[in-house]
Amino acid sequence: MSGDIHAEMHGDHRRWAGEAALWRDDLAAWHEEIQKALGDLSGLEAILREHDKALRSHEAAIRLHERALNSHEHALAGYEQGGSEEQLVALAPAHQQEAAKHEQQRQAHERVKKHQHTVMARWSLLLKALAEPV
């Protein structure tokens, strides 16, 4: 009986040593992955800075659009204060252009919004995953 126990213990040790070797292989691969990820950090920062730059550009486009709307609204108010029918007719093409521009801004904003939400959701998940204890 002690021979069976002895053989069983040796078998356990061989299996465990095999598992430990697989674990070391995993760790070596994971270290390589982490080193690559660390190397990607500067690129990630550059991408985030470009994204911030794009947000600022979108913001500037919205401000310009608002100025155009305010200018057109001011012209309409001028008509309401005694302008001629010709002035109103002259405002119609500009209004159509504003409508088209507003639709473009709406679509652009929806694209930016979707991208921003996706990036920040994934960023949050990444930070939470990295903060979890091992």
Topology of helices and strands:
Layout: H1 2-80, H2 85-131
Helix pairs in contact: 1-2
Structure at a glance:
The chain has helices spanning 2-80, 85-131. It is an all-alpha fold and 134 residues long. Helix 1 (2-80) packs antiparallel against helix 2 (85-131).
Commentary on this structure:
Helix 1 runs antiparallel to helix 2 (85-131). The model has no long low-confidence stretch (mean pLDDT 93). This protein has one domain. It is rod-shaped, with a radius of gyration of 32 Å. The protein has 134 residues and is an all-alpha fold. The chain has helices at residues 2-80, 85-131.
Low-confidence stretches: none
Largest sheet: none
Structural class: mainly alpha
Note the gap between the termini: 42 Å
Oligomer: single chain
Helix content percent band: over 70%
Mean pLDDT: 93
Overall geometry comes to rod-shaped
Count of domains: 1
Tally of strands: 0
Count helical runs: 2
| Beta-strand proportion | under 5%
- As a whole number of angstroms, the C-alpha radius of gyration is 32 Å
- SSE order, as H and E? HH
Characteristics of this structure?
single chain, 134 residues, mainly alpha, 2 helices, rod-shaped
